[in-house]
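How a chain folds remains the central question behind the approach discussed here. The record that follows shows the chain in one-letter code together with its fold in token form:
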Amino acid sequence: MADKVDKLLRNYFGGTLDKQIKAREMYLQFHNDIDENVGGGRAQNKYNNAVESQMITLERDYELSQLKHQKMVVELWLTDIGDDEYDILQMHYGDRETWVNISMTLNRSVTALQNWKREFKKSVGHYVDL
């Protein structure tokens, strides 16, 4: 059974993680909290700073910050790997290729590919809160 780091990598290489970030930003942008205060008084020093309020909402949102953090961690670990290793991850998580097809394409053993993937997952998993 796949674990949470597998799901994160599948979302990253499949393009779903970027869509989740964009969808959350759009939700926060158009989600308006309606003030239910029906008191008789009027605020004297109330300013309407829509842009600042929107930026604060985006920065304070826990789910959005977690998604961005996860993407940043994956991209950070991807900068230090070679082209073959990136191809392994892209073929496995993005293209959903079998290990046999990947090993035949890259001319490596299935065991070596799986061991490398396991080490990569372990290194990413240490820095991602899932």
About this structure: The helical segments are 4-14, 16-30, 50-60, 62-78, 83-94, 99-106, 110-125.
